Amino acid sequence: MNAKIPLAFGAKQVPMILQTEAAECGLACLAMIAGWYGHHTDLSVLRARFVISLNGVNLTHLVQYANGLKLSARALRLEIEELGQLALPCILHWDLNHFVVLVNTDRKGILIHDPAVGAHHVPYAQVAKYFTGVALELTPMASFKPADERRRVSLMALMGRVDGLWRSFGLVFGMALALEVFALAAPMLNQWVVDEALVSADRSLLNVLVGGCALMLAIQTAISLARGWTVMYLSTHLSLQWMANVFTHLLHLPMAWFEKRHLGDVVSRFGSVSTIQHTLTTGFIEAILDGLFALATLAMMLIYSVQLAAVVLIAVLVYAGIRVLSFGPLRMANEEALLLGAKEHSHFLETIRGVQAIKLFGRELDRRGRWVNLLVDSVNRSVRTEKFMLWFGIASTAVFSAEHLTVLWLGAGKVMDGALTIGMLLAFTSYGAQFGGRMAALINRFVEFRLLSVHAERLADIVLEAVEPEGQQAHVTTELAPRIELVDVSFRYAENEPWIIRHLTLTIEPGESVVLVGPSGGGKTTLVKLILGILKPTEGELRLGGCPMQLLGASASRRLMAAVMQDDHLLAGSFAENISFFDPQPLQERIELCASMAAVHDDIVGMPMGYHTLAGDMGMTLSGGQKQRILLARALYKSPKIMILDEATSHLDVLRERQVNQAIGELAMTRICVAHRPETIAMSGRVIRLGNDMPGLTQ
Ligand SMILES: Nc1ncnc2c1ncn2[C@@H]1O[C@H](COP(=O)(O)OP(=O)(O)OP(=O)(O)O)[C@@H](O)[C@H]1O
Which residue intervals define the domain ABC transporter in the entry (predicted)? Predict the structure, then answer.
């Protein structure tokens, strides 16, 4: 596919909005079309208004959401030849599981805004491959009102609190300013050498001037070194504090946030911190200095000759014009390059994680092929950005060379007329070159700052997202009895999804042992996640020890609980570290006691390094059952009042499972297990049956 992005010359354009979450292409398409009609919105605003699950949306939901935005929708079935007759822009159903915006059609193909990869011109041969024949035309209703509800992202809000930032900035700025004063004085020294020393053949003056020049250079070098040092310090300091702030925030985001994003995308968004920080630390100060220095050189040039100064100014304006006109496409190319890079990264990480299955199914070449395609896409977009930069370099050289020639031509005439001396012309050309260079740098920096908005928006998805709220009564958690009450609780993953749990009222008394059973997909894990505070009930209330969960807050209530979930992992570290979950003051006796209760102590001491044996990130050295037992020991180490086991003993033989259950059964804690095996169910107390025939449950 060839990418063609129209240039912005003030004409009304369909905005390009790239999707953030894996399944929100439909929302992104609606945002683009609403934007075209004048209701500018962004995905974070729409996400809050229309909650969608990982399953994404279908055409019916899109119609509902469009109505919510006061756009009336008309779904059509049509042939490719009829695309030209659609009211544009409209939404096309694409590749069976995706939506894109049709922006324009021409003789060769169609221009689409694809929320997954950006703007594309797609030839008709490819349209036939991807277009499913379904389109959605959207037009504003009478009640539609233009609005702008886009979230503004300020760098300060993204950065959070960084200590000593302004002091360090001030220091670097002071040193840089001192350097600039020397740079400003240099052309005048040249003028004096030519006009005073050379003309009068005054050797002693020449010696004084050259000596002064050498001293200036020595001071300049010393300040340069100090400045470089300080920038390095500032940059490291800022980067460390900022990254730590963002990482802390990331870890406090709700699970639902992580579930809806690809790993590579999260990594790439986090990486935006470095890009912004780097541009800010070096670029920000240099931009201010470039501006100040340009003003000073402009003043000097005007003193020498207004006419010549005007020539230089015109050249700068021409260069600025070129950069302004090409800003839109450059920003888009940048955004797409980042998005495609993240996709490629996700694919890479997923391939490494799933390497065993890939080998077993013999799909190595297929995975490689897909990765190479993603890499090529990503590299192509980066090349597009580099091409822009190449052209800017050439434009800058062409414009400023023309300016230089004109100044030389006009200036030489002035020297012949006696309006300027040779030294003055030399000094002027030197100031002119400095002014042009600094202004070009300033314009480039300005564009760089504007382009930071791409990174800022990506980072905002982490930083401006609300963390799990702290409860007002979080402090009372430790005194609470481990009683769990669900009062008329209903839950579904999104408005358009079926109810998983409906009107469920249930009390689990302190010390009670219950087992949740039911068919696969019946909602057992969902109920466990509700109790753990990972999910919030859509309706109804959950109470812990009589206190509503939302007053306690998820993290406080989790302090009472420990869980072994179906897809839990061990982390890179020794078994002892994993069992104590990297407790800074681990209690070896307790680690061994918990391992014994989880029936894994003998397995661990049988290994060459005992409790110091390393468990890999992917846990390759352990059997499935051993891994489950270590996870159990980890949960026991927490000494929870409530233990939740989601098929946590499914890989254990019946004998071992009985052993583990007996050990846990002797502890004073409330127990909730999810199980399928009759033996496991028989070992537990009260059975709670959840099923596809919800609402309700049987006990
Ligand atoms: N993040 C999600 N978004 C949308 N739907 C989901 C999500 N997670 C689970 N579901 C759906 O919710 C339903 C219940 O899933 P759940 O994992 O609770 O079932 P389960 O009873 O634990 O199944 P199993 O015994 O197979 O583990 C399923 O239909 C599943 O597809």
Answer: 484-699
Q: What is the widest separation between alpha-carbon atoms in the chain? A: 111
- Let me know if residue 574 belongs to a domain: yes
- What is the atom index within ligand 1 of the atom nearest the CA of 54? 3
Q: Which atom of ligand 1 is nearest to the CA of 528?
A: 18
Same domain? 201 vs 86: no
Q: Report whether pLDDT(410) > 70.
A: yes
Cα 674 to averaged position of ligand 1 atoms, centre (Å)? 13
Residue 19 lies in a domain: no
- For the cut 80, the answer to whether the pLDDT of residue 162 exceeds it is no
CATH, residue 580 = 3.40.50.300
What whole-number distance in Å separates Cα of residue 562 and Cα of residue 547? 19
φ and ψ at residue 498, rounded to 5 degrees: -70, 155
Q: What number is the average pLDDT over the span 51-76? A: 84
Please calculate the CA angle 423-426-429 and round it to the nearest 5 degrees.
Answer: 150
Pairing of strands 573-574, 614-615: antiparallel
Range of the domain at 127: 24-148
Q: Confidence band (pLDDT; 50, 70, 90) for 93?
A: very high
Residue nearest to atom 25 of ligand 1 (CA): 520
Reported confidence tier of residue 576, pLDDT bands at 50, 70, 90: very high
* Residue 624: per-residue pLDDT: 82
Question: Is residue 213 annotated as a catalytic residue, yes or no?
Answer: no
Ligand 1: residue of 51, 260, 261, 493 to mutate (most ligand atoms within 8 A of CB) is: 493
pLDDT higher than 60, residue 163: yes
pLDDT digits (tens, 9 = 90+) for 27-44: 899 999 999 999 998 888
CA distance 132 to 117: 19
Cα torsion through 589, 590, 596, 599, rounded to 10: -140
Residues 215 and 123 in one domain: no
